[in-house]
Amino acid sequence: MKKDYSKYFVKPSIKDARKRKSTETAVIDFNEYFLMKGFGKGKTYKIETYGCQGNEADTEKIRGILEALDFTESDKLEDADLILLNTCAIRENAENRVFGELGRLKQYKKNNPDLILGISGCMPQEEKVVDRILNKFQYVDLVFGTHNIYKLPEYLETVVLSKERVIEVFSEEGNIIENMPKIRENTKKAWVNIMYGCDEFCTYCIVPYTRGKERSRKSEHILAEVQELINQGYKEVTLLGQNVNSYGNDFTESEYKFSNLLEDLNKMDIDRVRFTTSHPKDFDLDTVKVLAKQGNLMPYIHLPVQSGSNEVLKRMNRKYTKEQYIELVNNIYKYIPNASLTTDIIVGFPGETEEQFNETLDLVEKCKFEGAFTFVYSPREGTPAAKYEDDMTMEEKKQRLYKLNELVNDGYLRGNLRFDNKIVKVLVDGVSKNSDEILAGYTENNKLVNFKGNEDLIGKIVEVRITEVKTWSLKGEQVG
Ligand code: SAM
Ligand code: SF4
């Protein structure tokens, strides 16, 4: 009897995703799902990851699942039995790159009809993307979103054994899946999700629709994961969430919040704790005070401001004013004088005037940022701002971006100059891109350092004296 696979043809819907219900988040144990060891024996996979750290962390889970099924990673894309694009939807050009790649991969599918070609992540969470795949990329075998990674074994079984196409994307708000296996990219630095989703609904942003409602992992699960990483010899963890400062707001039976989590991690035997991303609205003084204890809590904070104009911030639904942001920044510098701050800024938001843009430049000067990710606003279908009137040309927006970047680059250099002739601690990542004899790693303040050293220092924390300062990196000599 032929199985009915129509259940998989579930399309996502931004309209449904917009609804936030007050249902309790279910915590699902992956071990209850995983059944098919050996299924991937003799088969290889390759994953291409686009976008933010959240997607990189998801890729580590997908790899974990595939290797638990006995798939092995292929060296080359053209040799792989399974190719998966784990995608990002944040800006239109990110999406265009993925469609371009899907077009290129059609040839691989022609050469090897047994190849399984899949797309996962944020893009399939958008209805229009799934429609486009259904219509224009019929050779794609597997489409799933951010909420149902744990069902990958079941989907693969369907594609391989039944030769059926699987498209399943949940528009629902998402649960928490514990105990998914992971193959981490790095053996010393690890991502640790502390929460999933986002409830902020900034008017320009697609994330609340693609990643579901905000839901925090239980602290005991997070601390256990960090302890496991310590046992494995990890030196650095980066806590991940779209708004880490609202961690715990969804707990109904506990007052535990982000500052408590940092306090608990501060007592643990991990060398470095970082976190991203912070939201200025929820970054409380308790958190600043805990960070001031330093130890393993790194003096580096990424604090997206988006704009320096109160009018624009309001239309972006950021829920803070420029004055409140500056007050927070001043508190950070007061309690953590050696802190390095970076930010995200969007230019050319619909209706942004020259004067409002100048307010952003002014704020960048005042806050002494040591770096920033700067973006031209990209309309995302289904978000409120996509309907806002926008009469600025792309050329004008780009001019603003260049002007802003000049100021931001001054900040990078100023931040690096602070460390001229100082001794810094570098966690060595590996050899430099440009030379095998040069090692590269990051300082506590997240500055890239290159220095001459032996490869056995990789993965260790090394003291380096800075001898040369450039805009994007520092050069130094090992001390002792
Ligand atoms: N949750 C984080 C936050 O609130 O800052 C990061 C979200 S997003 C992955 C990273 C950055 O992309 C945002 O801070 C914002 O500057 C930028 N971004 C988001 N949507 C955008 C859009 N539609 N156009 C241009 N930039 C956008
Ligand atoms: Fe997007 Fe705003 Fe959520 Fe960040 S906080 S993910 S910018 S909606």
Q: Mind explaining what this structure looks like?
A:
By secondary structure, the protein is an alpha/beta fold. The protein is 32% helix and 21% strand. A six-stranded parallel β-sheet has the order 3-2-4-5-6-7, sandwiched between helices. It has a five-stranded mixed β-barrel with strand order 17-18-19-21-20. A three-stranded parallel β-sheet has the order 9-12-13, with helices on both faces. Strand 12 (236-240), helix 8 (258-266) and strand 13 form a beta-alpha-beta unit. The radius of gyration is 23 Å and the shape is globular. The model has no long low-confidence stretch (mean pLDDT 94). Iron/sulfur cluster binds at residues 198, 200-202, 205, 207-208, 242-243, 279. The site of iron/sulfur cluster (SF4) has 10 residues, from helix 6.
Could you give a short description of this structure?
This protein has 480 residues and is an alpha/beta fold.
